[in-house]
Write a structure and sequence with these properties.
Length: about 80
């Protein structure tokens, strides 16, 4: 991993681990897959490619947040607005 981006990569990894706590299939599966992806790309040394991967990771974080918010919205809607 390129040293200038090390801190950004570690922050991304920690953020994704934190967000994986509520993953529908379970935290252990999420953690194993996340570790596998980060390990696979750990030897990348091209700074531009590392930066591209970090941007993609940030996009994934936003997508996970959107999924969690949608789940929360649907739960609240189901509780307060019964279709019967």
């Amino acid at each position: 991993m390129a040293q200038p981006h090390r801190k950004a990569v570690l922050n991304l990894y920690k953020t994704l681990l934190y967000m994986g706590r509520d993953w529908p299939q379970g935290y252990d599966l999420f953690r194993k897959r996340l570790h596998k992806v980060f390990s696979k790309n750990s030897e990348e040394s091209d700074p531009n490619k590392v930066l591209t991967m970090i941007k993609h990771g940030d996009f994934v974080v936003k997508e996970i947040e959107a999924l969690y918010k949608l789940k929360k919205y649907r739960t609240i809607k189901r509780r307060y607005y019964d279709d019967n």
